[in-house]
Amino acid sequence: MRVLWRDDEPVFDGRFVGFAGIQSRPRPVQPGGPPIVVGGASDAAIERAVRVGQGWYGFALDVDATRSCIERLGAVQSRWGREADLGELEISVTPRGRLTADLIKRYDEIGVHRLIPMLPQDTEAKVLDAVAELGSLAHR
Q1: Domain 35-138, CATH
Q2: Which of 42, 75, 93, 124 has the maximum number of C-beta atoms within 10 A of its C-beta?
Q3: Are 47 and 80 in contact (CB under 8 A)?
Q4: What pTM was computed for the model?
Q5: Phi, psi of 100 (to 5 degrees)
Q6: CA distance 66 to 58
Q7: CB 3: neighbour CB atoms within 10 A?
Q8: pLDDT 10s digits, 88-113
Q9: Burial, 122: exposed, middle or buried (Cβ in 10 Å; 0-12, 13-18, 19+)?
């Protein structure tokens, strides 16, 4: 994707995909394109996040599972290194269930940069109530 976003005449020959003589328009406004966030807890996803991602995303993970993934990300980075131009790997997680101030603190303590809450899907009123509750947590 970065080659498509960056190069005037993009060419790429990888293990699973190759292309030449194509264009992808419109290009992102942000130089280099938007951050690439890799999701998943498989060994391949963990390695891919460290190798090519600006971020890693875990879905429906509790604190212990998230901690385990963060430790694995760190081990891969220690073993293989990380390109400096990728910057720090940002950690985003969607926890299961309702967020509380204590739970937010626990995720923060293990190195999570961003929590993406699950919102109710049944009515607009429930979504708005959940957003208001989250807003009250943010101002504590």
Answers
A1: 3.20.20
A2: 93
A3: yes
A4: 0.86
A5: -125, 165
A6: 7
A7: 14
A8: 999 999 999 889 999 999 999 999 99
A9: exposed
